[in-house]
Amino acid sequence: NKEITKVMLYGSYSYDTAHYGPIIQLKITVMAFVIILALFTSFENKKIKLISRVGKNTLTIYLIHGFILRLIKKYHLLDCGELINIFLSVVITVIILLILSNEHICKIFSYITSGRWIEKTRGNI
What we know:
Layout: H1 22-42, H2 49-56, H3 58-74, H4 82-100, H5 103-114, H6 116-124
């Protein structure tokens, strides 16, 4: 008797925690499969520069975007009317994708997470 809520799609909560049964889980899985299948068939032989760049740098985007979302929540940037929030969400999403998929940002992130900077500082000590 429960509906699928937007919180379910965040991926932060388990289905068990939210007390969603197997039918709801199946619905979400089928929806995700259909969306992925539609995307694969839509872009089958096409190379779109932005999509390729975002796909190549998915890990960086995934790991950093949460911090940006926390800042947006902290400063109440999406406390406007519903239509304005939808528009702002789309604009902010595009901006986050453009910034975090940038090759320079990805190189910096890769440098930090690889630990190479630690090796360089050890050599200077």
